[in-house]
Write a structure and sequence with these properties.
This protein is of the alpha/beta class. The protein has helices at 49-57, 96-100, 102-106, 111-124, 140-153, 170-187, 198-204, 232-236, 239-252, and strands spanning 4-17, 21-34, 38-42, 64-69, 72-73, 81-84, 158-162, 190-194, 207-211, 218-223. The protein is built from 9 helices and 10 strands. Strand 7 (158-162), helix 6 and strand 8 form a beta-alpha-beta unit. Mean pLDDT is 91; it is low at 259-265. Bound molecules: adenosine-5'-triphosphate and magnesium ion (MG).
């Protein structure tokens, strides 16, 4: 693998449950994501995917093990990592351009440079004409694009994306997937993407990691050996996609009856 940009080494996470002992959300997870690589993380609800992303972003400290970005141990939120969530979290009182520049402003970048970066990103994401609008004047899909622009504006090494498109309709989602894929390709950024959409995982990624039910462990890893990573719509047509999606469904036990352990968890 090329230079490793994001790494989890033997990470486990336990949460104390008020009066009910402790819950192990993530168990002994080791993952390495190389420079420019896009990796998807899939797994059943509650298996610890968001917990892992929070650890990578420095928002949560792991109980055991460590996360590293560019070889440095993650010890708190830092400028090398940017985070995008299901909810866009735009600030309603700021214009679109001011929202995009928000993270950069916190970093202390001067106003003219902030403006320049915001404008360039908005142009790339076909939002330039909305720079002066407010979030409530945009559709949900447009707001997610603004959130993506804001994530990219800080010029992070690693992008952590937690179900970024789950709240938008299926058609907008395809448009956003393509925009994300092109942006990732163009910028050469490294990304870890959480999604419940198996086809999305396959069409956007170089590699898909499958997690088990809680306590979440990595139980499978599939390299996506399909051309055109910057064109998910084209990839969708590739005959291999269905085979991989089927394999992922098998690994996730989709279609099988819920196993009895759940009641005891
Ligand atoms: N701050 C916390 N305190 C206590 N328990 C937590 C906390 N954060 C997460 N958990 C628990 O850890 C487990 C994993 O949660 P997490 O949000 O990582 O799951 P997930 O895989 O992202 O699920 P989903 O697909 O539904 O988003 C869950 O059982 C959750 O209740
Ligand atoms: Mg989650």
């Amino acid at each position: 693998m090329s230079v490793i940009r994001l790494e989890y080494r033997r990470v486990s996470m336990h949460f104390m449950q008020g009066g009910n002992g402790r819950l192990t959300a993530v168990q002994d997870v080791s993952v390495a994501v190389g420079d420019g690589e896009v990796v998807s993380l899939i797994g059943p609800s509650g298996c610890g995917k968001s917990t892992l992303l929070n650890i990578g972003s420095g928002l949560t400290a792991p109980s055991e093990g460590d996360a590293f970005v560019d070889g440095e141990r993650v010890q708190g939120p830092n400028a090398h990592v940017a985070f995008m969530l299901q909810k866009d979290l735009l600030l309603p009182w700021r214009t679109i351009a001011e929202n995009v520049a928000f993270g950069v402003e916190i970093q202390g970048v001067a106003a003219p440079e902030r403006k320049r970066r915001a404008q360039a990103l908005l142009e790339n994401l076909n939002l330039a004409e909305f720079a002066g609008h407010y979030p409530h004047q945009l559709s949900g899909g447009m707001r997610q694009r603004v959130a993506l622009a804001r994530t990219l504006a800080v010029d992070p090494t690693v992008l952590l994306l937690d179900e970024p498109f789950s709240a938008v309709d299926a058609q907008t989602r395809m448009v956003l997937q393509r925009e994300l894929a092109q942006t990732l390709k163009r910028s050469g950024k490294t990304a870890l993407l959480i999604t419940h959409d198996l086809q999305e995982a396959v069409t956007l990624s170089d590699r898909v990691l499958v997690m088990s039910k809680r306590p979440g462990r990595i139980i499978d890893e599939i390299a996506i050996d399909i051309p055109d990573r910057d064109d998910p719509l084209k990839r969708r047509q590739h005959p291999k996609v269905n085979d991989i999606v089927n394999r992922l469904m098998e690994r996730l036990d989709i279609g099988a009856p819920d196993d009895a352990v759940q009641g005891r968890a």
